[in-house]
Amino acid sequence: MIKFILIILFFSFNLFASTIIYTSSYIDVLNGKVIKNSSITIDDRKIVSIDNGYIKVSKNDNLIDLRGLTVMPGLMDMHVHFGGEYQSKAERPIKVEREMEAILATAHAYTTLKAGFTTVRQVGDSGLVAISLRDVIKNGYVIGPRIFTSGKSIATTGGHADPTNGKAVDDYEYPTPEDGVINGPYEAFTAVRQRYKDGADGIKLTVTGGVLSVAKSGDNPQFTEEEVDAVVKAAKDYGMWVAVHAHGSKGMKRAVIAGVDSVEHGTFMTEEIMDLMIEKGTYYVPTISAGEFVAEKSKIDNYFPEIVRPKAASVGPQIGDTFGKAYKKGVKIAFGTDAGVQPHGTNWKEFVYMNQYGMPAIETIVAATIETAKLLGESDTLGSISVGKIADIIAISGKPLEDMNDMQNVYFVMKSGKVYFNKVNWIIYL
Predict the structure, then answer these.
(1) 107, 48, 135: which is closest to 339 by C-alpha?
(2) Is 255 helix (H, G, I), strand (E, B) or coil?
(3) Confidence (pTM)
(4) 58/145 same-domain check
(5) Do the domain assignments include residue 3?
(6) Do 291 and 345 meet the contact criterion of CB atoms below 8 Å apart?
(7) The domain that contains 399 carries what CATH number?
(8) Stretch 400-425: mean pLDDT, rounded?
(9) Which range marks the domain in which residue 234 is found?
(10) Is the pLDDT of residue 2 over 80?
(11) Which of 132, 136, 317, 373 sits CB 3.0–4.6 Å from 382 for a disulfide?
(12) Cβ of 233: how many Cβ atoms within 10 Å?
């Protein structure tokens, strides 16, 4: 009994303690610079003060010493799919039940958090998997990043994300707007309202063909202007963001004019579309790492279905070049990988590619923190190490601003003021 009481007293004591982080180097993403020798004080999930030098720590506080590491805000990936990872034809199961998808999603969420990503945007799954995962993570039942999700993507009949593509006619019932397939503006409203009813945070729209869908074209427009306009109008009525999968320029242009929040992939984006995106304030989520992954795998015989292979070979290399042009042009960039095409936990490779195609190292981190927070409409609470914001903080071993490959060396992850991953092994409870 005495031992039990002591344990209760210990946890009650620490519950009200402040946490102080010593850092010799943290990245100020709001100003694009590195701040030396600081103390970050955290109380009740939030950053309450940032002081120059190393402040005195009281006996009631917890000290985390991250000196010698590169400290930065928790990273944010705006394009993930937690329910699986792409596999070769030989490895791919004939079917994946939603129960299996949910289990895999839980595992992949944990992997992603350990990789330093404290917030993600899941843009499309088989239904309610990501919505459910978001809620159980929020309620503390499982461990993973903070999730914003679209639920099931919205497609047109035969379009990218039509769940019946590649199936025999006798093996499925005609998909409805509730299933994520629409034809015409009226059905667009039904589909958006269903996503709202499901509890989605936003809408994912596949306005062009896709690389991995079982269809000939990877870039043809698949929504009319009227359909795109209807989706955006309905989404805005319900306070939801709209992200669009788009490779081809024609469908992309329709989406940008309609007022979507972000363009995903953007493979064949023209300068005209770049100018439109700058005018409209549309974000570009490049997913270069997914493009590089599928381009590499397209060289392997029988890895992809034959209808997919030429699309993977042509689209993959183009994304990086498009990103470089869009960055130089001044298009707003938000970090996103399409993890789930490539393995989860390898999200860090996107930093390497973004840097390789022309974006300075510190700007890649800005794109994965404060810019992603702006895209989500959460920049008041997330995206930087700032007083008043939620304490999402990670630490990297090495010098990522000199070598972006060091972004894989995550040694410490804090989300909402709680430590979830720690390889430094020096948290001192005073």
Answers:
(1) 107
(2) helix
(3) 0.91
(4) no
(5) no
(6) no
(7) 2.30.40.10
(8) 95
(9) 75-376
(10) no
(11) 373
(12) 15
